[in-house]
Design a protein that fits this description.
Transferase(Phosphotransferase), domain 1, 8-stranded antiparallel sheet, 5 helices
């Protein structure tokens, strides 16, 4: 185990299991590779039913609520391997990268969940599997499930929130309505796999994020009338516009 008292993060090397864990300092003495196996938690783990490609569970542990997520492939690569990725280094493992990105976004005061621990486990000399544990945001639900779903004010709040992330340089490559959570009066973004902080905010990547979200709204919000979708998207767009930042 690498110790650095000035850092809230510890890296745990487990050579006998061909694994490494990145964990918040307060969890480093407890976490094991078993924590990333939903079967280990028995009835304290239940599948997340919305969003993603499956492979996510709500976990309850000693009064805390977490989300466990396995990294899974989609599309054609999934036909070859559902969970394995090409290994280059621990630092570049998808779970470790997302863990560190969450910490960086937290440091910027952005509304994201807190990472608990991340796993990188070798399957061979050139393949690995990854998983991450994140604190569950109390009372949070995806945008379409929010009681405020049909309020223009919420959509405007979503637009303003996305603007904050974009102004900080966050390129969210999977921005969709299921990765926008609402908890009471607060809006959060989640699921930062393959996302990154850009050195120079602005450009095509921001427009690409917004186009992806628009497609998601058209696909997932069909319970709204076309008129409402148009009005809500307008509220989001106006709040997102740069002059609102």
């Amino acid at each position: 185990m690498t110790r650095n008292d000035s850092s809230p993060v510890r890296e745990i090397q487990l050579p006998d299991q061909q694994a490494a864990i990145l964990a918040r300092d307060d969890m480093a003495q407890q976490v094991t590779t078993d924590w990333f196996d939903p079967d280990f938690w028995e009835d304290q783990a239940r599948p997340v039913s919305t969003g993603g490609r499956g492979g996510a569970w709500f976990v309850h542990h000693r009064g805390e609520d977490w989300v466990l997520r396995h990294y899974r492939r989609g599309g054609l690569p999934a036909k070859l391997s559902r969970r394995s990725y090409l290994y280059s280094s621990q630092r570049q493992a998808r779970s470790f990268a997302e863990f560190q990105l969450l910490l960086a976004l937290q440091a910027r005061g952005l509304p994201v969940p807190e990472p608990v621990a991340a796993l990188c486990q070798r399957r061979s000399s050139w393949l690995y599997r990854a998983a991450i544990l994140i604190r569950r945001i109390p009372g949070a639900v995806p945008l379409p499930a929010s009681p405020r779903y049909r309020e223009e004010a919420l959509w405007a709040q979503v637009g303003a929130t996305i603007r904050r992330f974009h102004d900080a340089g966050l390129d969210h490559v999977d921005l969709n309505v299921d990765n926008i959570l609402v908890s009471g009066e607060r809006v959060y973004l989640i699921d930062f796999d393959r996302c990154r902080l850009r050195q120079k905010p602005g450009g095509r990547w921001q427009a690409s994020n917004i186009r992806r979200l628009r497609r998601s709204v058209e696909k997932r919000c069909r319970d709204l009338s076309e008129e409402d979708r148009r009005a809500f998207w307008q509220a989001l767009s106006e709040a997102y516009a740069p002059h609102h930042s």
